[in-house]
Amino acid sequence: MSSTKDRSPALQIDLSSLQDYLQKQFGTGARLIEAGEMGSAGKQGMKEFGYGKPLHIRFELDGEEKQAVLSTMRGDSFGHQFYWDRAAILMFQYETGESMEKHVSSLGFGYVDKKDNLVPVVEPREFFILHEMAEGYDYFLDLERIKKKGLKQSDLELTKEFSRWMARLHSRRLDDADLYLRRIRNLIGASECIFGLVDSYPHPYDLFPPERFEELECRLISWRWKLGSFTHRLAAVHGDFHPWNVLVQPDGDFRVLDRSRGEWGEPADDITTMTSNYLLYSLYSGPSLKGDFEKLYRTMWDTYLEETGDWEILHTAAPFYVFRALVIASPKWYPGHSREVRMSLFRFMENVLQDEEFDYENINKYLG
């Protein structure tokens, strides 16, 4: 198993790369004089620039000598394991430093590419991503069809393929306890996860008053400590595997969209996300999981457990079901639900936390 503990190796930045950056940032009138680690004399022979080691730079700009400090961040276990974590901190510093009295001025902002070139980012306002356009239709359309017209054998086969895909994905494991704990901490406390979702509900909310939210949060704190003993389960995950992030291809295969919340996490995150939506669609025809959507739910769980042998996942699934229940019960995200559908989801997310092991074969007991 590999580790993420060294996610910020030394950079191989030579003086020509630094000179090139200065000219891209400030124009052709910029000329490097010398560079070296802070606290040391200028060293023209510098080759390695380690993360967290500020670099003192002397350069000339249109005939006037200037000095600057080039800084990066070192990866650590405090939510800075990945370069995109560190990028967010540096973006914040670049954007907000100028607005504070007595704060040093920001002269430039950029990134180091895979060839150790320094690339300036000039006056950023927003970022974007460009990806391929895949053929296919949103998987939720299949669920709408099943709700109205019933299940096809191909629907069960696709669900089995979802489980086999998850089994392959989750087979990639990583030995990094800090990263697993981070994912559990984020699950409960992040703005787009449980506590953030709780805050997004209207307060007070007649279907789920404040005292029930408070009790729910207290139970989740206990689960946070319980899941601290499962750090060996860290695996590659999607992180947002729901019917609106799946494209069904013309040949019956599928593609996935919008991988979220990092590359590594708890496998229960993915399977609870999709099976929660099978539960949701079933609740539109009554207060239980039954019929075609129960078949999809059972097919997914049974196939996944057969493929992985990971029965331990039943000991970690409950708080992930709470997260997804809060999402799909939300009056903000799903304003069209009936009162009965929301009440069923609220009962489910409270009751599922009471068992040490999720009883996937008897899910309806959590809806009572």
TrEMBL record:
Gene3D superfamilies: 3.90.1200.10. InterPro entries: Aminoglycoside_PTrfase, Kinase-like_dom_sf. GO terms for molecular function: transferase activity. It comes from the Bacteria. Pfam families: APH. SUPFAM superfamilies: Protein kinase-like (PK-like). Residues 209-275 form the Aminoglycoside phosphotransferase domain. This is Aminoglycoside phosphotransferase. It comes from Desulfonatronospira thiodismutans ASO3-1.
